[in-house]
Design brief:
This protein has seven helices and nine strands. It is of the alpha/beta class and 224 residues long. It has two domains: 2-152, SPOUT methyltransferase, trefoil knot domain (Alpha/beta knot, 3-Layer(aba) Sandwich); 169-223, Orthogonal Bundle (Trp Operon Repressor, Chain A), CATH 1.10.1270.20. The structure holds S-adenosyl-L-homocysteine. The site of S-adenosyl-L-homocysteine (SAH) has 18 residues, from β5.
Length: 224
C-alpha cells in the first residue's frame, strides 16, 4: 500500500511514521509513505499556500490552487482509491474503517491547517473525510499519523503472529484481555495463576472471559 500525505508541516509526520512497526512495514516493502510539502506547490516564491478567509473571519485558509496542483500531480502517477481530508467534522475513525482502508492500494491524505482548507477542495477533490475524535487539533498531521499507523499495522504481513491484530481491542467488538509479564509475583502483586498453568484451553477461556467482562464494564455500547 502507498499513502501520500500532503502537509504544510511535513516535519510533524516524519518521526511518528519512521519507528517501530511503521518502520518495519516500510522496510518490508508492505507500506510506502510519501510525505509531500505543500509549499512545493506554493503560488509564488514567498511560499504562499494560504490566504485570509472571505467574510472577514480571523485565521488563514489553505488555498485551492496549490492543493489542486499537488493532487493532480499525484493522480498523473497512479490511481488513488480515496483522497482523504482530515477534519473534525468528518466520519469518526474506528477499527472497522481502518480494516476497510487497509485493503486499499493507494491513498492520499490531505492535512488541513489554520482555519482549514477552502471548501471547494472538499466539494470537488476529496472522496472521504475522517475525524480522529470530537476535539480540535492545530493541524491534520497528527490525525494523518494516527490514520496511517492504524491502517498500516493491519496490512497482512506487517505484524507477526505474536502481536496479531486479530486479538486487539475492537476486532470482534471486544476490548482486549489484560496482559502480564515476569515476574509472576512482584512484592505480593500476583499474575493470575491460570496464565502460567500451561493449560492452553483454560488460558484461552480466561482470556475470552476477561475480554467479555472488560467490555461489559467499560464499553457496554460495543456489545449492542
Ligand atoms: N476550524 C475548523 C478546525 C480547524 S483545525 C473547525 O472548527 O472545524 C485545523 C486542521 O486540523 C483541520 O483543517 C483538520 O485538518 C485538522 N484537525 C483538527 N481537528 C481534527 C480532528 N479531530 N480530526 C482530524 N483532523 C483534525
Amino acid at each position: 500500500m502507498r499513502i501520500d500525505i500532503i502537509s504544510v508541516v511535513p516535519d510533524l509526520l516524519h518521526s511518528p511514521l519512521s519507528h517501530s512497526i511503521m518502520k518495519r512495514a516500510q522496510e518490508k516493502g508492505l507500506l510506502e509513505v510519501n510525505i509531500i510539502n505543500l509549499r512545493d506547490y506554493a503560488i509564488n516564491n514567498h511560499g504562499q499556500v494560504d490566504d485570509y478567509a472571505f467574510g472577514g473571519e480571523a485565521g488563514m485558509v489553505l488555498m485551492i490552487e496549490p492543493i489542486d496542483n499537488c493532487i493532480q500531480d499525484l493522480k498523473k502517477q497512479r490511481h488513488y482509491d480515496e483522497v482523504i481530508y482530515t477534519s473534525p467534522d468528518g466520519q469518526t475513525l474506528n477499527q472497522g474503517m481502518a480494516n476497510q482502508l487497509s485493503m486499499k492500494e493507494n491513498l492520499i491524505i490531505l492535512c488541513g491547517h489554520y482555519k482549514g482548507v477552502d471548501e471547494r477542495i472538499r466539494e470537488h477533490l476529496i472522496t472521504k473525510e475522517i475525524s480522529i475524535g470530537d476535539y480540535v487539533l492545530s493541524g491534520g498531521e497528527l490525525a494523518a499519523a494516527v490514520i496511517t499507523d492504524c491502517i498500516g499495522r493491519l496490512i497482512p504481513g506487517v505484524l507477526n503472529d505474536e502481536s496479531s491484530a486479530l486479538f486487539d481491542s475492537f476486532q470482534d467488538n471486544l476490548l482486549s484481555h489484560p496482559v502480564y509479564t515476569r515476574p509472576a509475583d512482584y512484592n505480593g502483586w500476583k499474575v493470575p495463576e491460570v496464565l502460567y498453568s500451561g493449560h492452553q484451553a483454560n488460558i484461552k477461556k480466561w482470556k475470552e472471559d476477561q475480554a467479555l467482562q472488560r467490555t461489559q464494564s467499560r464499553r457496554p455500547d460495543l456489545l449492542k
